[in-house]
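Progress against Task 2.4 (sequence-to-structure conversion) is shown through the following example record, which the project officer requested during the mid-term review.
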Amino acid sequence: MNRNIYTHQVAVNAYLLRAEKFLLLKRKTSPFIWAPPGGRLKKDEDPIAGLQREIKEETNFEVDVISPVNTWFGKWKEHWLLSIDFLVHYKSGQLRLSGEHSQARWVSIDELRKGKPIKLDDISGFHLSDFENAWKLNQFKK
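Structure tokens generated for the chain above:
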């Protein structure tokens, strides 16, 4: 059996909270959605280390990874993808966006529920229920 055959890619995403608000980033490439920071892991990369790397690259933030919140598996852009989403708390750093994103905004769970100032794209992006799960886990972990 060849152990070097990979059947899918693995992505990690951060429901990153600071002062009771989630960080959302506006993608510069299709799909042009608001989404939490994150990305694909490198081959054989530890998910938590990879998430911290992605957050540092995309925002310049140092974070504490609290706990997994959600998983998703399916086809994304013609490839099979396993996504692991984590509850993450801001630790330090000044926001500096990477070239992958055009904007950043901190939003409360109530603002996400109202769809203002940001409306989530339920078709190609993250769902309100994902943020609700992260919010509930955050309240439990306090």
